[in-house]
Design goal:
The chain contains 22 helices and no strands. It is mostly helical. The termini are far apart.
Length: 415
Amino acid sequence: MLASNISINIITRCKTAIFAYLIVGFFTGLSSASTLFAADEAALPSTGKPLKLPWMDEPLEPLEPINPRTPEMQNEVNAQAWYMTGRFLQGRNNFRGAFDAYRKARDLAPNSLPIYRALVPLAFSLNQTTDALRYALRAVELDPNDYLLLRQLGVHMASQRKYEEGIKLILQATQSNRVKKQSAVFIQLNRDLAILYSATKDDEHAADSYAIIFDALQNPAKYKLDFNMRSLLSADPRTSYEAIGTAFLKAKRMEAAVKAFELAAKSPRGKPGLLSYNLAQVYQATGKHKQAAVQLQKYFDAKLQEKGLPAYELLAEILKSQKQPDTLQQKIEELAQADPQNPYLQLFLGNLYLEKKDYSQAEAAYKKSSDIAESVAAYTGLISVYRHLQKPEKLLNTFASILGMRTTLEDPTLE
């Protein structure tokens, strides 16, 4: 009976103490989330004497622990409290408050990985880029195998055009002991590497990464790729079969390039004419100029425009290899007549006329190109024409046309 009364008394005193703590916090401004979660013993008056409140029958006795905490232990407790404060505030969309709470936790526990993992994305979202990078690098030091954080950091570096740094970080992610070589994660990381290597003109390493993607697309079960992942890789112009074939071509892996190009032609978005263009590239690169010309003509006959000016530049290269460079203009004029709504043909033709100082013909070709599809290149050609013809009024009008255009710059991004 005595034991029962003692237990009831203890429970009652604990409930009273908690209630008093909350009441004191309310009336003294301590009821904010950061104080409720992060307050330590200092939150209550530390006089060493019982705390007597008017509405309580008994005073609150200060706790005298049997094993007092060391300063290090107290820092750890406080760090956990501030970390939980950050989680609470972040859950309520108070991101700035959460960020400050996490930083206080970091100050108390500078080697706590969960704190850095919470800080990094929040710092990026608050545009605290310098802090975010610093925290991310520290987290990577604490856990060199955190491939998710390594990739996040690598993607950010790439977005800042720091491609070499991005490659180094993502390459480290591929070497993590948590990443299986035959997994969707490994393919995702190699996708990133392929894009970044291509951006830095590192054809050999780009082809290596593309070879892994190529294998995965043909053997999805081997890498445990689901339908969505396969569809994303195939639909993305940076990882499509055609992009893979082009990467192999640049690295002079001709057999693999032809195989990739053939699969590109069989894909739902594939076109036989595009396969012909790609095969023309392969034949030209291997010195088979006649076969290259035949395949390129198939592309022209299909009246495709996907390849733009490079298709006609390839024609010029083939004719030069066949020692027929003087026939280029006549050939382009015939193609332009057969495909009058092709702005790239007119643009290329205008460039040929401009080289020969045939300004009236160049002007007509550039105008026709811009009439079909406005482009900075066509207007730039007209500027050269009017500058040579000394026509300032037309020159100014052309400048005005360029300023009125909306142009975008391509940038190799990973997302």
